[in-house]
Amino acid sequence: MINLELSENMVKLQQNIKMVAKSMFRPISRKYDEAEHEYPKELDVFRGAPLFSRSKNKKEAPSPASPDKGRSGPALGQILSVEAMCWGDCGLLMSVPNAGVGNAALVAVGTDEQVEKWGGKWIAFANTESGAGSDAGSVQTTADADGGEWVINGEKIFVTCADRCDAVVVWATLDKLLGKAGIKPFLVEKGNPGMKLEHLEKKCGLRASDTGTFVFTDCRIPKENILGDPEIKQTSEGFKGVMKTFDMTRPMVASMANGLASASLDLVKDKMAEKGVEPDYHKTPNQLSAMEKEYLMMEANLEAMRLLTYKAAWMADKDLPNNVEASMAKAKSGRTATLIAQKCCDLLGPLGFTTKELAEKWMRDVKIMDIFEGTGQIQHLIIARHILKLSSKELK
Ligand SMILES: Cc1cc2nc3c(=O)[nH]c(=O)nc-3n(C[C@H](O)[C@H](O)[C@H](O)COP(=O)(O)OP(=O)(O)OC[C@H]3O[C@@H](n4cnc5c(N)ncnc54)[C@H](O)[C@@H]3O)c2cc1C
């Protein structure tokens, strides 16, 4: 039976990580918002501690002696950590070495040997192209077999940690006529003469995290750098790897949004307390001030966001298919956190519009949560297809 109550261990983990976020991220948050593209060298202390790893005992039943009684697992631990870190600073979390979306892709689709070989690297994820973002299966970048190598040609845009990563998981097609079935992931290491970092974006938010465009021109990589099944004929599972990665990372994006929303709400609560206003949970709606009412509504929404996110992670920990739940969590958290961060700036008055506080930054940072890893509209499509039992061809 599903149990989303956090165990004592999980609560402790959350508290400890929040302390780290408070003492390490918050003090440098504004600095790296202003110094876009500069690597936050303070994050070097996290090198060698991968965020994504492959559980070796996934199928093992929880030990009856475990105080967590089967409630905890790596995915739940990850999303709690991510929320706590993003309460500190989301752009900085995305700049932590070895925590790239490509690392999640490697864990999701790579063989055990590949995870062992490249797991220690910082890996970016490059799927988006100018004609393939929401329609992730329209990838035009090609991978052609030539002797003992793959030759990659194409352009990938909006790649997170493009400048800082050690390697990139590039999604390319073996045969455009095969559509999604022909798309496979390839690991390209930095320094390859065929891969050029064309430019870095200037962004409105999440400025501590770098985002860039790669151009691949006759980029030659070893044959073994195709991730997962190397058999060229067995391409039917190829594109599913993108979706498998998103099943892991969408709940994480949801928890990033939850972290930003909770940071905004905590600030508003502190400012209300300074004015002697404490939200009273025992009052009826007509006894509450407008500000208290707004605040309590947002708190309730944050609770709903968290429960959906925990559920998606709980299912991942139980090895249950969670793609719809991952989309639900991301759709709800991405959209609602954006509204919460904006409303918190409203409630803070002029303070919400100045750089004295981080509220205006969180409002800028949070917008991306409803865009990357599939926009809110795309998550709604995925959910609707599931409910209506329609295929992606039937409901576009
Ligand atoms: C800061 C940042 C970091 C990123 N990091 C990465 C990364 O590391 N790796 C990577 O591969 N990509 C990355 N992306 C790309 C991101 O995932 C895409 O931008 C996103 O998926 C949207 O795709 P698109 O840009 O093609 O938008 P489009 O598909 O052109 O969408 C434009 C608008 O149309 C809507 N829309 C599109 N299709 C439909 C439909 N069928 N029904 C209803 N509405 C629709 C969308 O919701 C959106 O509102 C990043 C983007 C940003 C901004």
From TrEMBL:
Residues 237-388 form the Acyl-CoA dehydrogenase/oxidase C-terminal domain. Residues 54-73 are annotated as: Disordered. Keywords: FAD, Flavoprotein, Oxidoreductase. InterPro entries: Acyl-CoA_Oxase/DH_mid-dom, Acyl-CoA_Oxase/DH_mid-dom_sf, AcylCo_DH-like_C, AcylCo_DH/oxidase_C, AcylCoA_DH/ox_N_sf, AcylCoA_DH/oxidase_NM_dom_sf. Its cofactor is FAD. The keyword Oxidoreductase applies. Residues 124-219 form the Acyl-CoA oxidase/dehydrogenase middle domain. GO terms for molecular function: acyl-CoA dehydrogenase activity; flavin adenine dinucleotide binding. Belongs to the acyl-CoA dehydrogenase family. Homotetramer. This is Acyl-CoA dehydrogenase.
